[in-house]
Amino acid sequence: MTDRQAEVLAVLGKLADAWNDGDAAAYASLFTEDADYVTFFGMNMPGRAVIESAHRSLFEGPLKGSKLVAGGGEFKVRFVRPDVAIVVSGGGSSLSDHKPEPGRESTLTYVFVEEPDGWRVASFQNTRVSDPAARAS
User: Hey, what domains does the chain have and what are their CATH numbers?
Assistant: First the structure.
């Protein structure tokens, strides 16, 4: 792993820490001011202020006490320019025992940009993992 990859992945660690602490302000601070955050429902939360407000409501309500957990596979980090990285990873959340819960696994896609104060998420998409063939039967 390169130093640049480690810098980007460190931000993912900070995102997980903020989520696991239920700290919406710290979580949102890791996004750019104009970030797009697309939920697994397909809803876009545009901008850091909306991301913070929505997560505050989630952390105080239905996702209170939830924890982010790593998914299967490796993090894929690809630099499309020296100051722009795309990260694809698996992940999920747990509402009970800090273990991945069935049906809560996702493929996560991040676009990171390097700003003067460090790497920030400019775009995020959470897509639930499902097997369409299994649903058809």
Answer: 3-129 (3.10.450.50)
Cβ burial of 87 (10 Å; 0-12, 13-18, 19+) is buried
User: By three-state DSSP, how is residue 29 classified?
Assistant: coil
Sort 31 into a burial class: Cβ within 10 Å, 0-12 / 13-18 / 19+: buried
9-22 pLDDT, tens digit each? 999 999 999 999 99
Which phi and psi angles does 98 have, rounded to 5°? 65, 20
pTM listed for this prediction: 0.89
> In whole angstroms, what is the distance from residue 75 CA to residue 110 CA?
11
